[in-house]
Design goal:
- The protein has 9 helices and 15 strands.
- The chain is of the alpha/beta class.
- The strands form 2 sheets. Strands 14-13-12-11-7-10-9-8-15 form a 9-stranded mixed beta sheet. The protein has a 6-stranded parallel beta sheet with strand order 3-2-1-4-5-6, with helices on both faces.
- The longest helix is centred in the C-terminal third of the chain and has 20 residues.
- It is globular, with a radius of gyration of 20 Å.
- A hairpin with a 4-residue loop joins strand 11 and strand 12.
Length: 350
């Protein structure tokens, strides 16, 4: 819908509004502040202290009302960092107002809500990007380079662990611990990073079998999930994800020539003989000098897509595909059966 569009050139800045300023919102704001092609025009949060902080940082308008932010106007796009269950309403209103949207992962809590947002973005002609920042990390890019080069051979299996001790450290009434707002607690918030990385490194997850248990929470809420996933290209993937243990984000690729051990900010490539090889034969890549690199790349990529027409890497359908795996894990746990994952990305008839 061209009436919504503002004429832009590469010399102009993206006029951005930010909704959700505390917690993870602070991380996103720091990266937005580092992006020279973004001008923050307005911010929104129910917390007066968070609003004041952001108003001071950006010298911008602040409000506690999402609708007031939209009504004030002067925006090209909006970054939404609010709890999952608010995404559908807020993203829909922003798209209908003619704004491009960067929404934090997961895109929503259900495939139905996610698809509604994707279809509205396509209808309005606005960009919808989902904040799967981890694939933008330099370490992730290095792993992708190694896999695509063939240097390590073919992938046999991928093992992932995405966990953090959230239940001991988050208030019991926090939304991240309520299935109504965060359906499959650790997977919806943490493991979904791994799901998106499977799609980035390899191919679409085609089916999944998952099991879960309650460790630090009371049943029927679950805080520990293990899943086995099949991919279209063949390799099997295992995902272990919980809210109970010290933070551990790690992926291991067992490959036909060399193995790869990957964390968000480091990559290690084994000798040809793997664990039998000499320690000096391991090749290591350390990216811990900047642990915010993925966030910085993500927000600048969004600005480049809006201002210059760059193709979105994690558009709404990519975000929806990751969410589909999460929802199918829930179904698998309930049914105690393997569940097929619908395809939201491949062109019809492909």
């Amino acid at each position: 819908m061209e009436e919504f569009a503002r004429s832009m050139t590469t010399s102009e800045k993206l006029r951005l509004g930010i909704v959700g300023l505390g917690g993870h919102g602070r991380t996103i704001q720091a990266s937005i502040a580092n992006c020279e092609s973004i001008e923050v025009v307005s911010v929104c949060d129910t917390s007066a202290s968070e609003r004041q902080r952001s108003e001071n940082v950006f010298g911008c308008f602040g409000t506690d009302s999402f609708d007031a932010l939209l009504e004030r106007g002067g925006l090209d796009a909006i970054a939404i960092n609010t709890p999952n269950h608010l995404h559908l309403e807020q993203v829909s209103k922003a798209l209908e107002a003619g704004l491009h949207v960067l929404v934090e992962k997961p895109i929503a809590n259900s495939m139905a809500d996610g698809l509604a947002m994707v279809e509205l973005a396509e209808k309005t002609g606005r960009l919808l990007m989902v904040g799967h920042h981890m694939r933008y990390n330099r370490a992730s890019r290095k792993v992708k380079e190694l896999i695509d080069s063939g240097e390590c051979g073919s992938i046999v299996t991928m093992e992932m662990h995405f966990s953090a001790n959230n239940t001991p450290n988050i208030p019991a009434d926090a939304w991240r611990l309520q299935p109504e707002y965060c359906p499959l607690l650790p997977v919806t918030q943490l493991g979904i990073h791994g799901v998106d990385l499977v799609h980035y490194f390899m191919s679409r997850v085609s089916d999944v079998f998952a099991a879960a248990r309650s460790v630090t929470v009371k049943s029927p809420i679950v805080d520990s999930v293990t899943a086995v996933m099949s991919t279209e290209d063949g390799p099997l993937v295992t995902l272990t994800c919980n809210y109970c243990t010290p933070v551990l984000f790690e992926c291991r690729f067992a490959m036909t020539r060399k193995n790869i051990v990957f964390t968000p900010h480091s990559v290690a490539v084994s000798p040809v003989n793997g664990m039998e090889g000499d320690d000096s034969e391991w090749e290591s890549f350390d990216f811990r000098d900047d642990r915010r690199d993925g966030y910085d790349s993500e927000v600048c990529h969004f600005a480049d897509a809006v201002l210059n027409g760059a193709k979105l890497e994690t558009d709404g359908r990519v975000g929806l595909q990751a969410l589909a795996v999460d929802e199918c894990m829930r179904n698998s746990i309930a049914k105690e059966a393997r569940v097929s994952v619908p395809d939201f990305v491949s062109p019809v008839g492909s």
